Amino acid sequence: xxxxxxPLACKNGLNFNFILDTTCAKYYIKSxxxxxxxxxxxxxxxxxxxxxxxxxxxxxxxxxxxxRWGNTxxxxxxxxxxxxxxxxxxSGERNSRFLWRCRDCKEQFTVRIGTVYEESRIELxxxxxxxxxxxxxxxxxxALEIKRHCQISYKSALFLMNRIRFAMAPDAEAPKLTGDVExxxxxxxxxxxxxRNRGKRGRGTKKIPVFCAVERQGQIxxxxxxxxxxxxxxGAIREEVARQARIITDDFPHYKGIGEHFDGGHETVCHxxxxxxxxxxxxxxxxxxxxxxxRGIVGIYHxxxxxxxxxxxxxxxxxxxxxxxxxxxxTVLAIKEAEGKRLMYxxxxxx
Length: 351
What we know:
The longest helix has 18 residues, at 284-301. It contains twelve helices and eight strands. The strands form two sheets. The protein has a five-stranded mixed beta sheet with strand order 6-5-4-7-8, with helices on both faces. The chain has a three-stranded antiparallel beta sheet with strand order 1-2-3, with no helix packed on it. It is α/β, with parallel strands linked by helices.
């Protein structure tokens, strides 16, 4: 198939070099569903507000306050809505720290309290920009790029991105995957030269194994695992997948026996004999999600250690699970998910 030509165009015998050719684009658009078109073309007020929020600190504060509280600001200490903005007595403008005060508990607070950016000295306009880039870049955004665009240190950019990824982490009480669930594993690590086809890929190397379970037309869950033993894989599947689901995997032998634990049973596709699909039995959804992660790791981040890999997986899972949202909706959701989460350098001390 020529580069940039859609399968539909090739099927109809059309000879185009680029997807943006007028006639080819027309056929491409016709092949899209109404839901796809509406989702991509939907206008978002957030997209209009973000540029100002990324350049002006007051606009950034008001933008985050609006996403967190809407039109009803509330005390983060007692929950009361009897609150007011503290203003400078001479100028009448907002306090330089953008403080609020509660009339009930008399406590002062800001929009930072109880979020991943609490106690951060980084300006909120930089947080807005980092949230925007993290939610709109399909394969991720590098901390070095945030450093250059925001004119902050690399250490501060890493601080920002690690906490935004933590905000994107899945809820521990999220429902398990149901329906048809594809399970597969992938390997993250440095590429080694393959002299005369002697190099190994994936299994049997020192790369980091990652388990993936994806519900068709639904959510995805990834996790770093210690090894690829049957006990580890079956344990990961039972933790992420509901008992009513049907499990679909490749013919890796360590998946054997998992069907006993699920009402829908266990079906496999035999990759070792170059069978990649048999009716609706395939792992193509999981493998396509692997491609996005690997392109992001290789092209954007270049290398990720085992210690921090799980945070990058949280970001890719969040982007996959919100793929039906437009960029503005996805950014707002990430900001709201930042509430109630703190990523500390050290755990709280116990006396």
